[in-house]
Amino acid sequence: MKSIQYIASVLILAIGIVSCARNYDLSYVDGFNPTGGDSVGMDVDTSSALVDRSKYGSARIYPGLVDLDVPRLDNVTAEIDVSVLPQPASVYRISVSQIPAFSIGYYAPAGELIKITVPEGKYGLYAQIGVHTDNLSAVEAARRDPLIFTRKALIPGGTNYVRNPYGGLIWIFATVPYAEPIQLTLSGVVKSPDFVYGESDDASWKEEVMQSKVPWLELRASSIVFSVPTERVQNFIRTGRLVSMEDAMREWENVFAKDYYEWMGFETDISAPLIDRKPLSPERMVLDIHPVVGYGHNGSPVVAQDDNGWLSEAVGAQAVREGNVWGTAHEFGHNYQQTAVWSWNGLGETSNNLFSFKIAHRNGINRVGQHPQVRAQFPLAVQAAKERGGADGATLNAGHHAAGNPFYKITPFAQIFAKLRSLDNPSDEEFGWSFMPFLYKRARHVEYTAISDLDKRDFFYEALCDYAKQDMYPFFNAWDIKLSSYSRERMAIKYPRMTTKLWEYQPLDGTGGDAIIDF
Questions:
Q1: Bridge partner residues of 288 (DSSP)
Q2: Residue 210 has what pLDDT?
Q3: Parallel, antiparallel, or unpaired: how do β-strands 76-80 and 216-220 relate?
Q4: Global confidence as pTM
Q5: Contact residues for 104 (Cβ-Cβ < 8 A; gap 6+)
């Protein structure tokens, strides 16, 4: 009986093994076919002879076409220094930081294939054709197609192929720093007539621009890059509105060095803590026929309406010196707002405008009287502060309180800058202006993020008290800026109360603010 059971078990096992053996018709071993084809079935676009004309109609409208007689260049090189990349905005406690983009001075014609060769081992690069990155998909009656840029990762150790049916200026992005500069080789591109501060000279550059048939160019310096339409620049040169691009870019370098970075407490010394080192990547502004928001908006890049007004701010050295670059300074000011620490709700269109006053002040210009809203709102604001006064329990005259107006809210800041004096050196007229570097640096180093507007107002109040070595509560009370009892008590114990009515100072004519506090 046991023998029969054993024999039956062996037969069942044998039948199972045979039934599981199937012929998969595989002619290779180990499941790997060394001669297999492309299972995806994709054709790689490598034909330079083929031009994608599907968007010619739209590209002709914007951003423009490159004439057929403009030489397409082969095997040209571009070197980029990626040793230092921008820090995230969170490091600086600001709203927006720079993007890791590098201009290379070349333009990709619409629909034409360009080749980019990347050295072996240089990972983390990608190319972008087209600088107009605002997405207009949700915009009604858009004046250009919604998406007109192309972005593609670059593979090292070989040739990369990129095509954009709209064409555009070429930016290279880097996500990994390398100590040595990276040299790229490009084919199929045309040269954009860029102005490079420190390399280009006015006369030769103007001649190059006037002869160019490339629709876009860039005005480049170490701190700022403007991407602008060639035809508009040609008109400015022809009509004498662009006098010296070298002078204009020198002024913009001064603005970013002295009126942004130095005023924000940044240092040029590489031994300084990382969060206090001056950003080394340039800010960018792109003119666009249809910004996704309004007449212009902040970001990286800043995007502004493609018109003569914005271009005149970019190319006008005298406009920069006289502080008549309100729009440009306004948008970059948005990027630098420290909303996570001290710029509280309601200062969105106020604290960004403070940089315009600094630009004018450095150049000896009385900027406060030049903007019509400043002339209208400052008197109302000072009168309201006078009526309220700095005493506890005072009430604000609602008839004068234009709290929603950002220029009204600039007034107390203008008073601090122009009138605040040091107890140790009352003759120092720059003392108030130096409060901003103190404030910005302190905000970068604080180890917390404000969780409420009250936190932000308390931070600003305590920073001003620590800077002035006075309890500035009467000033905040006159301006109806609410503070916590905790901060008020701390500062009252720490410092003597301020002695003059700073809130009565009128920045428009430099009068007032000296009366002694009598309460």
A1: 305
A2: 99
A3: unpaired
A4: 0.89
A5: 78, 80, 170, 171, 172, 184, 186
